[in-house]
Specification:
Layout (H helix, E strand, L loop, with lengths): L18 E8 L6 E9 L25 E2 L6 E2 L12 H11 L10 H14 L4 H18 L2 H20 L9 H15 L2 H10 L11 H12 L7
Antiparallel strand pairs: 1-2, 3-4
The structure holds zinc ion.
Length: 233
């Protein structure tokens, strides 16, 4: 059956497979040039989990949307390696003292890259909303890496950071309050803290500002509280 290889049954018609290309990046911390892999095209035909983890059919793009310098451990998106990167002396010290010593020479996993990027974002004094997003992505990567303990660790860290963002005046756009309140509930549910999950799911209806366009969030919160599902749709 060699002629049938590679089997591409999972590829939906008209959809793009996840394809990568090598890119050359310049580290703004240590001045090293290094090679990374970036996503050229991908798809969302793998469905969406109820924590908004969107799946591609075939290879997952997530680990390749973040990059790590192989010399000092500085991590972030492609933009963080461009001239737009916000690099202070303090950030450099943090990277050299806290990321560089723990750098591994073997292949770095997606969750490790996102964890480092979340630290960098914190040192850059980025908003908690942004840091929480990186932590959530680290948790999503752990799902594919099959590391349930690390997944739970990042989910908890993400949930607390989203809570922090929701607690700050203007920490999150008003129109995002309901969906992030739902997400915090869903994160606690996936961690296994049903009680905390319920508290957050029950708060969702108070955060609605447009009952028509946001009804789905109220419905999703009720569903995940009473009869949880793994996937949307
Ligand atoms: Zn570097």
């Amino acid at each position: 059956m060699a002629q049938n290889f590679p089997i591409q049954l999972a590829r939906p018609e008209g959809g793009d497979m996840t394809t990568l290309q090598h890119i050359d990046l310049h580290c703004p911390i240590c001045d090293t040039q290094f090679r990374s892999q970036a996503v050229v095209s991908t798809n969302s035909f793998g469905g969406k989990r109820t924590d908004f983890h969107e799946r591609a059919a075939g290879m997952q793009p997530l680990p390749f949307l973040v990059h790590m310098c192989s010399r000092c451990g500085y991590s972030g998106s492609e933009r963080d390696f461009s001239d737009e990167a916000d690099v202070s002396q303090l950030l450099k010290e943090h990277v050299w003292n806290e990321l560089a010593p723990t750098l591994v020479t073997s292949a770095v996993s997606g969750s490790e890259k996102y964890e480092a990027a979340a630290k960098v974002a914190e040192w850059q004094a980025m908003e908690p909303r942004h840091v929480a997003d990186l932590l959530l992505r680290a948790a999503w990567c752990c799902v594919d890496e099959g590391d349930t303990e690390a997944e739970r660790y990042f989910r908890r860290h993400a949930a607390r950071t989203f809570e922090q963002a929701l607690g700050i005046y203007d920490g999150v756009g008003r129109d995002e309050h309901a969906v992030l309140t739902y997400l915090v509930g869903e994160l606690w549910r996936r961690i296994g803290d049903v009680k905390a999950a319920k508290v957050w799911f029950n708060k969702v209806s108070e955060e609605i500002i447009d009952s028509q366009s946001q009804q789905w969030i109220v419905d999703a919160a009720r569903q995940q509280r009473d009869c949880p599902r793994e996937w949307f749709g």
